[in-house]
Design brief:
The structure is a homodimer of 203-residue chains.
Chain A lengths: L2 H4 L2 H20 L2 H8 L3 H8 L2 H24 L5 H18 L3 H11 L3 H9 L3 H14 L7 H17 L1 H9 L3 H24 L1
The structure holds a DNA duplex (18 and 18 nucleotides).
DNA sequence: GTCTATATGGCGATAGAC
DNA sequence: GTCTATCGCCATATAGAC
């Protein structure tokens, strides 16, 4: 059952806007395209959301919040550092596999308007320091002797995000633009990154 | 001596366009801003380059080509795999430190218009497979027993690029938006990534 | 070659009929 | 609430004086 079939006009607009904004960005998106995608007239978007800026902010806030909450869950779980990291990789890979445009979208929009960050973190109730400090404390006492957890987390996310955002380039130079082979590359990558991380923290 | 002081009008336009395009992207850039940055009138840009698209392509082709050539040099050098990788990290860190906006710029523009890639690789004379195959061959016989060199290179670039492109977010949540501390974080990161890579390939 | 002034088109936003 | 028609602005691009 397609959820959008029975949804209200406002929900249809929101879903369409989400798709268009995420793939084209705030500047690249067109209100006309969102209207087409939602199967209605352009004027209706303004009737419900008054401006493109408003519509964008509604979409971006939700995406940003959900994405960061998801990151927190694995790191806040009750487990050893090693287990946490493996769980984190599992969940993060699934997250970006099913939302491949989101990481680049968030990075681009934050860089375009960095002032969004402060208000966004405040409004969304995200407390990243809580997550990171907790990770810090556990890590220091345990297996991670000489590794700064910040560097480790940055490395893991970078290893996972880069092949997604740079997909067109890598798919071209590695696999002669073969989409299926690249999907396989991404699939096997989860275990490979896990092994790399294990080597890093266990050495 | 500022090179732009004595350069021709066309060179001034090119340099200004490079700065604006790299930081704002093709869609975000404005011809007026490029003209202001070059210290001249908007009409002159069209006199020399005819269209925004033309000017952009001239800039993008150069940046793309130079960036990928630079990557190749380290991996094509005569050395062991380990030495190659360390040299590659050294050069790549320096490259993106002095061109922090370029990686995101390239990724964005390629994703916006993936068809650019084929013609670009052809025109620029880049042969990435040569580089990668060479790396493959050396790697297989040597220390990298169970590691796919493709995954390793993707991991390294991801580890290095991510803290640059996601800087506003990471600087905020890690260091309360302290710019100096984040610069230090980036500086120490070169050696940290080297150590991580060594653990990965030596385990 | 370099400027000012203007044409042209696209997009966000609004007015107003239904 | 939903549509058609249109306004007004801004950005690329061009015309034409100097």
């Amino acid at each position: 059952m397609d959820k959008t079939l029975n949804s209200s006009t406002e929900e249809k607009i929101y879903e369409a806007a989400r798709r268009v904004f995420v793939s084209k960005g705030m500047e690249g998106a067109r209100m006309q395209e969102i209207a087409d995608e939602a199967g209605m007239n352009k004027a209706l978007l303004h009737y419900y959301y008054r401006s493109k800026e408003n519509l964008f902010k509604a979409v971006f806030k939700d995406i940003f919040t959900k994405f960061f909450r998801k990151i927190g869950t694995a790191l806040l779980s009750e487990a050893t550092v090693k287990e946490k990291l493996m769980l984190f990789i599992d969940e993060y890979v699934d997250l970006i596999q099913s939302n491949p445009y989101v990481p680049q979208f968030i990075i681009n929009e934050i860089n375009r308007d960095p002032l969004m960050l402060k208000s966004l973190m405040f409004e969304s109730g995200i407390e990243p320091q809580k997550i990171l400090f907790m990770f810090d404390k556990q890590a220091n006492g345990e297996t991670l002797k000489k590794i700064d957890p910040r560097h480790l987390v940055v490395s893991i996310i970078g290893m996972l995000v880069f092949p997604i955002v740079a997909r067109p380039i890598l798919q071209m130079i590695y696999f002669n633009d073969d989409q299926d082979v690249y999907n396989q590359f991404l699939t096997e990558r989860k275990e490979i990154v896990k092994n790399m991380v294990l080597k890093i923290i266990e050495a």
